[in-house]
């Protein structure tokens, strides 16, 4: 509002994002590029200078099902993000502003991340093996496991609100793909395990 820019509803913003990715990819492909869509019209525009890497990889990130569907169809790298209080998908995923839970699950824990991975894989089709998944990872280097978990809980509080503590066990946090706790050797082992479990590269 302060910038005088209309904040469109999510469905409009997501359609615009899909077109924007098409436009960026077209311009980065080299040569004159033309496009006519709902939001963008381009006539013979050529990007100069062009990218050294041709074409450079495109990264799209999000936490909601619709945004991740766009990412799965168009991006080379898909970043998995949590939905946080104050954001809502236009699908039926209700975010509780007090607990930070979406449909009864906490966004930074394993079940929610696993579901996002499945959304991406389902929408990617034949591209699924070519997509790189990346995610949010916080590493707590410590030889005091209990203190490391406490630090993770403090981070959850800041991100999702203090109500996010409710019903979340230490094991839930330690199994989350978003947190690794321990010595350097333990962290390395945990990161490999999460990559194998969720397919998240970094």
Question: Taking all residues together, what is the mean pLDDT?
Answer: 85
How would a crystallographer describe the biggest sheet?
3 strands, parallel
Helical run tally: 6
Helix content bin: 40-55%
Overall geometry comes to: elongated
Number of DSSP-assigned strands: 9
Strand order of the largest sheet: 3-4-7
Key structural traits:
three-stranded parallel β-sheet, two-stranded antiparallel ribbon, 202 residues, alpha/beta
Give a nutshell description of this structure.
The chain is built from six helices and nine strands, in the order αβββαβββαββααβα.
Overview of this protein structure:
This protein has 202 residues and is of the alpha/beta class. Helices cover 40% and strands 16% of the residues. It has six helices and nine strands; from the N terminus they run αβββαβββαββααβα. The strands form four sheets. Strands 3-4-7 form a three-stranded parallel β-sheet, covered by helices on one side. A two-stranded antiparallel ribbon has the order 1-2. A two-stranded antiparallel sheet has the order 5-6. β1 (33-36) and β2 (41-45) form a beta hairpin. α1 (10-28) runs parallel beside α2 (65-74) and α2 (65-74) packs across α3 (110-124). The longest helix has 19 residues, at 10-28. 24% of the residues are buried. Residues 87-93 have low confidence and may be disordered.
Topology of this structure?
Blueprint lengths: L9 H19 L4 E4 L4 E5 L13 E4 L2 H10 L2 E4 L20 E2 L2 E2 L3 H15 L7 E4 L2 E4 L3 H16 L9 H6 L3 E4 L1 H15 L4
